[in-house]
């Protein structure tokens, strides 16, 4: 639906589509405004009426609905998109937007005014294109009165956490089956341990793929791209908007730290899964006792080292996403703990492969390799439980 109201040289356009409501002011072909990123059908909309002022309306934009005013407060790196926006009309306890909380759907969608014009910091300059953007968005913001309650939502964020919890549990069983025989000199349970390792690696692969889909459909890229160029014709009219569909494959801006971390996590899980497959009995002839050292190193230990290193990088990115400064940890954030504990688990899995290169004929290296898997799996479990707890506490729909 598009409705035009002519007032002199100004044209006010209201678009109501599947991806949300967009309020646009066009003045002499100069685009001001922004497309809503909520990807939701507005339940009811009304044409923008410039003659009906609102206390918080921006007269220069023709926006008449009460809004909060958000400005960039932090970007983890100079070339990365901001992860933290804050209301610059109130104190530090005012309305906030966090990229992770938005991606995880922890808060309900609200109307907010985003300012990306007049860049003053390096982070703002890095995310502002040649034309300055200022306009209203529907974002998942946290208001001072926002209250999180236990609310089980069967969405993708919940299932991401569930798959990682199940995968961590499988790896703990794998660790017990390998580590306990070393302590009590009992018979090895290598076959059962390999089976549980394959199950854990498969669960991690599914969880990483769901995490990728979650970040791919977050809608955050609409916060940074050029305003509404794709839906405006040269004559000031509008084109038909595409329906917002769930994307299973595709790309989003790699400057979005959430999407970058999720992509690295998926690639790492896929590489790591190779080692769980080659660790099954019969895949590598004679493994683990009489197999070729070269074949074992290439197809079993190396995927663990590469995959574990990728897990480490992804965990660091997820921790940085929740910090106000790259050098300052944020233990008050549950999302930060998810990244921190997964970082410890990633280091453990990486060390497992690293020690594994020299484990043949070296009891100490073999002991350290198995021990690294054991404590690394417990660290992954703590991080996964934090993620599950995070997905349960959400703001109630109003």
Overview of this structure, please?
This protein has 2 domains: 2-146, no CATH class; 156-218 and 256-395. Helices cover 43% and strands 15% of the residues. Strand 1 (2-7) and strand 2 form a beta hairpin. It is of the alpha+beta class and 398 residues long. Mean pLDDT is 76; it is low at 1-67, 126-133 and 226-243. The chain contains 8 helices and 11 strands. The protein is elongated. Strands 7-6-5-8-9 form a 5-stranded mixed beta sheet. The two termini are 26 Å apart.
Note the overall shape: elongated
Radius of gyration: 25 Å
Number of helices: 8
Look at the helices and sheets and give the structural class.
Answer: alpha+beta
Average pLDDT reading: 76
Question: Helix amount, in percent?
Answer: 40-55%
Biggest sheet character: 5 strands, mixed
The SSE order reads: EEEEEEEHEHEEHHHHHHE
> First CA to last CA: what distance?
26 Å
Fraction of residues in β-strands:
15-25%
- The low-pLDDT segments are 1-67, 126-133, 226-243
- Number-wise, the strands total 11
Widest sheet: strand ordering: 7-6-5-8-9
Number of domains: 2
